[in-house]
Amino acid sequence: MRSTQRARRALLSALVLVGATTSLTVGATPAPAATGIDLCAEVGYNAGFRGDALVTAIAVGMAESSCNPLASNVQHNTPPSTDRGLWEINDYWHSEVSDACAYDAQCNADAAYRISNGGTNWQPWSTYVEGAHVRYLDAARAAADRLGHHDPGPAPVVYPAQSGRVVSARSADGRLEVFAAGPNGVSHAWQTTASGAWSDWESLGGPGGAQLAIGADQDGRLEMFALNGSTLQHRYQLHPSGLWSDWETFGSGGHNLAVGANQDGRLEVFASGPVGVFHKYQTAPNSGWSDWESAGGGPANSEIALGKAPDGRLEVFALNGDTFQHQWQTAVNGTWSTWETFGSGGHDLTVDHNQDGRLEVFASGPVGVFHKYQTNPTTWSGWEAAGGPANSQLTSEHSPDGRVEVFAINGATAQHIWQNGVNAPYGQWDTFGGPGTEIVATANADGRIEVFGTSSAGVYHKWQTGFATWSDWAWLNTTAGPAVN
Fold first, then answer.
1. Which residues of 261-294 are buried (b: 16+ CB within 10 A; e: fewer)?
2. What is the pTM of this model?
3. What is the pLDDT of residues 40-72, one digit of tens each?
4. Residue 406 CA: distances (Å) to CA of 178, 269, 331, 484
5. 105 and 116 in contact (C-beta within 8 Å)?
6. With contact defined as beta carbons under 8 Å apart, do 436 and 451 qualify?
7. What is the pLDDT of residues 323-341, one digit of tens each?
8. What is the number of helices (H) and of strands (E) in the chain?
9. In this structure, are residues 286 and 240 in contact, taking their beta carbons and an 8 Å threshold?
10. Cross-strand bridge partners of residue 430
11. CB-based contact 142:149 (threshold 8 Å)
């Protein structure tokens, strides 16, 4: 086991990934005469970045290449590959971006704009995840102001994390943290370095047999919520990437919960129980909480998931054995619609977004998995059969190139399915492991997916070793962790 971890640490320290999207027109706009940080500001604005997203883009460009359009890097890239140009677009993970485009300042900026989904998703850039861009923010603001381009614009979208009996999210320094709910309370482990090896498990106490949800405050501190039939508690990081508070009461018991971030950074928590769905929200970013309020109905004792529409409005999906309903914010950071029928009942669900921002919902039931997706920000497709394991627990995450991958586990099997291309249809289900009780997928700081699966034998994980290759299932460290029945 220790030799395996040493080999893994060596691999992880070498892996550098950058996200991808669609094909690009090479050299459509000649590179401006500006140089350095002013060049990043100019081509970033021309690509479509606005407001704070433009400032972030400039800062990331400085962290990646010092805003040198001819910059390249081949060190520590596995498989051997080259990071190219202003935003260091990798030629292995994103072969659709030619060298001619990557080394053209404007074409590189256009690629970065598409890869980052218009400045709403900088997670594919390790310099952003690790905070290396932060020291350039003041200079980036000055460059945007100097060129007259610090115009108002949308803040980056913050997508909700998964919820379930095991959850994982990245701390502000890029390290994954994972929580698992066993019969005697919640256990916790964390990466000792970003994309690296794992600590031993520690017991935190808290509600036994709980459903968990985790989200990030606007300042980067993680907050974790745990609910069972009689208790709802939460704990939170005292500082970004820092120590955690003790458990605090957050409400009474219920069935399931989910947390998401409003466009203005305020967290919002939804919980289901025997009389429907309730919610509670921060009154200001990084601040205190409202009282619990009825969400206007919703299915009783439902499984809940949150997503965020392309325009920044949160959307809530709630499913029980008989009913599937949906409500959404009527305006960004605003009030909520009434509940509408979204389908019939089922077992579990996961919500994710395509690279172009459109939401996609997967739901499992007695005959397998079905999915439904936005055809524009306010309309949806019909339900389509996707195959897959019956009555399975579901989770989803993005590959480094932006394709959605869906993972399913039940008492007989674990399987996964993925898009054939960015924003594209899905292929066939492939075996991903044996039976289990819960599954959650998350992304490492370098962009690779990491999946946690649970059973009565404990918590195991499996991670991408390349673009389409995976490790075996393994313990996080020296023990299997808590049993999750």
1. bbbebbbbbbbbbeebbbbbbbeeeeeebeebee
2. 0.75
3. 999 998 888 887 789 999 999 999 999 999 999
4. 19, 24, 29, 21
5. no
6. no
7. 999 999 999 889 999 999 9
8. 7, 32
9. no
10. 416
11. no
